[in-house]
Amino acid sequence: MSFDLGEGIAVLERTPATLRVLLSGLPESWITTDEGPDTFSPFENVGHLIHGERTDWIPRARIILAQKGDRRFQPYDRFAQRRESQGRSLVDLLDEFDHLRSENVATLRSWDLADGELALEGEHPELGPVTLRQLLATWVAHDLGHLAQTARVMAKRYREDVGPWRAYLPILNG
Amino acid sequence: MSFDLGEGIAVLERTPATLRVLLSGLPESWITTDEGPDTFSPFENVGHLIHGERTDWIPRARIILAQKGDRRFQPYDRFAQRRESQGRSLVDLLDEFDHLRSENVATLRSWDLADGELALEGEHPELGPVTLRQLLATWVAHDLGHLAQTARVMAKRYREDVGPWRAYLPILNG
Question: Average pLDDT of A59-68?
Fold first, then answer.
């Protein structure tokens, strides 16, 4: 096991700025490209991360820390951003993600969690019992997964354009 | 086909700052993690991108544009950074990548390439004839591939730590 709270926070607090530097000011074609039906464009990735800040990570951590009778999480809507991001600009979404993430990381830091608290459990509606440590590790891995997905969906725009180099670029064939 | 020179440059000029925001100041454990023998850590990804700036993209573009008798590229050493990055700090590598990329993008812009030039061919030592357009599209996709790889190798540190969430995180199983 590798999870360490300070190391995890170091990643969480970098994600909004990383996405801002990568995406803001790019031509629209890069922002709206996707991998087909029910896949996320870079724009949708940012909206999805915002939805997580509002409804997933910190709200679920609060349920675990409260240790009341009902520790079952609300199911997570992977496509909520289709409603919530409608008509908004990318810069607006990047600003909101930055703002929410800063607040949530400040909340996480303020809890000053000890090992005993990280071992407390909640109930995932599909996966069953999960610990706070697993939830926080998932928050970090989920960020990195959506950063990788954003880069991959962009790369795939050039799947044909690279010609024979496609054989050397595994990202285009995933 | 989607390749457009201006759109491609928009990505190329963002990569150094994206990697800097993602990686600089992170604990060493995030920088040196890899996926096993002959795989790249985040540190090695930056070294590999530097080697490309020095020996691959612009040097190969020059060979194509010169259209002399021998248009065959030098083979590319995917592991050159193991020698070249030895003993250096991540910040030092990020600075060098930023500097080289700025110069190379300035060179590319200065050529003001027209469609006829983008269609010119060189000879890849293994792939055979390739066009300048394919080379430039590959440069962009290669950047995005290494950004995705960097995020993936970091995420995999938490492969076990996420517990049952692993089933929902395809990045951990790739």
Answer: 96
By the 8 A CB rule, do B26 and A12 touch? no
Q: Which single residue is written with the structure tokens 């060979």?
A: B63
Predicted confidence (pLDDT) per residue in B91-131, tens digit: 999 999 999 999 999 999 999 999 999 999 999 999 999 99
- CB nearest to A147's CB, from B128, B141, B151: B151
What count of other Cβ atoms lies within 10 Å of the Cβ of residue B112? 8
Entry pTM = 0.97
Q: Which bin fits B135, alpha (ψ -120 to 50), beta or left (φ > 0)?
A: alpha
Please indicate whether, in this complex, the C-beta atoms of A134 and B10 are within 8 angstroms of each other. no
Model-level ipTM above the cut of 0.85:
yes
Spatial distance between the Cα atoms of B2 and B55, rounded to a whole number of angstroms: 26
* CB within 8 Å: A128 and B164: yes
Q: Does B6 touch chain A (CB under 8 A)?
A: yes
Helix (H) or strand (E) holding A155: helix A132-155
B164: left (phi over 0), alpha (psi -120 to 50) or beta: alpha
Q: Which residue of A has its CA nearest to B28?
A: A7
| Mutant choice from B18, B64, B133 vs A, greatest count of A C-beta within 10 A | B18
Write out pLDDT tens, residues A89-133. Answer: 999 999 999 999 999 999 999 999 999 999 999 999 999 999 999
**B148 vs A148: CB contact, 8 Å cut-off?**
yes
**How many residues in total does chain B contain?**
174
The pLDDT of residue A106? 98
Contact of A173 with chain B, judged by CB distance below 8 Å, is answered with no
Of A9 and A37, the one with more pLDDT: A9
| C-alpha distances out from residue A140 to A50, A146, B19, B96, B116, Å | 14, 10, 17, 28, 46
